[in-house]
Every structure is written in structure tokens, then in C-alpha cells.
Design brief:
16% strand, alpha+beta
Length: 256
């Protein structure tokens, strides 16, 4: 976010929803220390979110505190503090031996461990996110929901480049490139539908699209006496199909 970018967008008669850096002047020291200090609360995908809105001339700034994000950052802070304390204790033991030989190198301040990680760092903005928008007609919950849609967009491009590996065409003719892009588009429509289906089954934390592709390709059929019969499937494939409610026990071949 920059003032020049916002001015350019507004001069083009466009709307924007832009995340801000923590500690920005538009929020300043107005970050509540506790959830009770926020104006309202709501839930998003089962996680509790607290928010406050700051009105400015022609735009609003919405401050959010995500409980899941806060817990994740808190766990990370404690893990890093414990790792730092372990290193400090190791240094203290070596320093003790050096001091016995009158060869000390470190000061007492460098050998102090942190008892409470929250006391050693400013945690007022932990778990928070602020968003600037010129859509003053939208409330904080609506802005938050729209912003979270970027996850689907990022998933789309991640799938396009990493999973499908469509970022390089290796084609030189316009006609071939157009056909390649068209087929890519059809493939990605199927891919994103598959990802949505995995999410609708609440299995997105267990399976990825790559899992779907690698497991379903193992479902095979053999032809006996002019008829197709499913081959035996592994337990992993059976569990996967069961979790996603896929019935692959019967294989229909549209031609003989």
C-alpha cells in the first residue's frame, strides 16, 4: 500500500481493499490490548474475529484481531523464546567455565533467560490485520470476507504454476499458444472444481489436488471377454474414495 497507488486507483474510478503494514499511522496506537476493546465480533470459517473501524476522509481502515492467527503467532513466539533460552543456558555454562579461568567474554545481561515471552516483546498487534478501503458502504465483516477471497485466487495461480506446471508453454506459433491456453483453461476449471469438492467434503486439510490426481490414476480396469472389470484397489485408494464419496466400483466404457 502506498498513497500514490491509492490515488492512482481512485483516479481510475476503481475500488480497492488493501492490507496495511502493522504499526501504520492510520491505526497508530489504537490497537486494543484485549478483545473486549474492539467494537464488534463475528465468525469466519469457524474462527472468531474481533474488529474496529476508523473512519477517514474518503476511506475506512478496519482493524481485525483473528483468534486463530493470534494463537499461531503466540505459539511461534513461545517456541522461539524457548529455543533462545536454551541457547542462552548453553552460553551461560561455557561462560561459567571461562570465568573460572578469568577469561570471561559475555556480560551478565547477555546471559539472562526470558521467563515470560510476552514481557520481552510488544505483543499489542499480535494476531491483528488492518485493511484500508474506499468502499465505505461495506462494514468490517463484508470487507474481511471479500479480502479472504484472495486465497482462492492465490490457490488458482499456485495450482497453475506448481501443480499443473502450465507456466511454460515452449510454443512459438500464436495458433498453438492459443490452443494451449484454451486447453489449460479447461483443465484448470476441472482442477478448481475438484479442489472445491475436496473443500466441501471438509477434507482439504487431509488431501490436496495432487493427492487426488496421484490416487485416482491408480484406479484401473482390465478387459475380459469384451467387457471391462475394475482391478483391485489399494486400501489408501479405497479410503480416499470413501472420504470424498466417490463411487468407482462400476466402470462404464462408452464404446466397445
Amino acid at each position: 500500500m502506498s498513497e500514490d497507488n491509492c490515488s492512482l486507483i481512485e483516479d481510475s474510478s476503481l475500488n480497492y481493499i488493501i492490507p496495511l503494514r502493522r504499526g501504520n499511522v492510520l491505526v497508530g496506537g489504537k490497537v486494543p490490548a484485549e478483545p473486549l476493546g474492539y467494537e464488534r465480533s463475528f465468525t469466519y470459517n469457524g474462527r472468531s474475529v474481533f474488529c474496529s473501524t476508523f473512519e477517514h476522509g474518503g476511506f475506512n481502515v478496519h482493524l481485525f484481531r483473528d483468534s486463530v492467527l493470534y494463537q499461531s503467532e503466540l505459539d511461534d513466539l513461545l517456541a522461539r523464546t524457548e529455543k533462545r533460552n536454551a541457547a542462552t543456558e548453553s552460553k551461560a555454562k561455557k561462560e561459567k567455565d571461562r570465568r573460572k579461568a578469568n577469561k570471561g567474554r559475555l556480560s551478565d545481561e547477555q546471559l539472562v533467560s526470558v521467563d515470560n515471552a510476552l514481557l520481552a516483546k510488544d505483543c499489542s498487534e499480535m494476531g491483528t490485520m488492518s485493511i484500508k478501503t474506499n468502499r465505505t458502504d461495506l462494514n468490517a465483516q463484508q470487507v474481511y470476507a471479500i479480502y479472504k477471497q484472495r486465497q482462492s485466487i492465490e490457490q488458482y495461480f499456485k495450482t497453475y504454476g506448481d501443480t499443473m506446471r502450465y507456466d511454460d508453454s515452449y510454443l512459438r506459433h500464436n495458433e498453438s499458444l492459443e490452443a494451449w491456453l484454451f486447453l489449460n483453461h479447461l483443465s484448470l476449471m476441472l482442477t478448481m472444481d475438484a479442489i472445491d469438492d475436496i473443500y466441501s467434503c471438509r477434507k482439504d486439510k487431509d488431501y490436496s489436488f495432487e493427492d487426488l490426481r496421484s490416487l485416482l490414476v491408480k484406479i484401473r480396469a482390465s478387459k475380459f471377454a469384451d467387457d471391462w472389470h475394475p482391478c483391485k484397489k489399494t486400501q489408501k485408494v479405497i479410503s480416499f474414495c470413501s472420504d470424498l464419496s466417490l463411487n468407482v466400483d462400476k466402470i462404464d466404457v462408452p464404446y466397445k
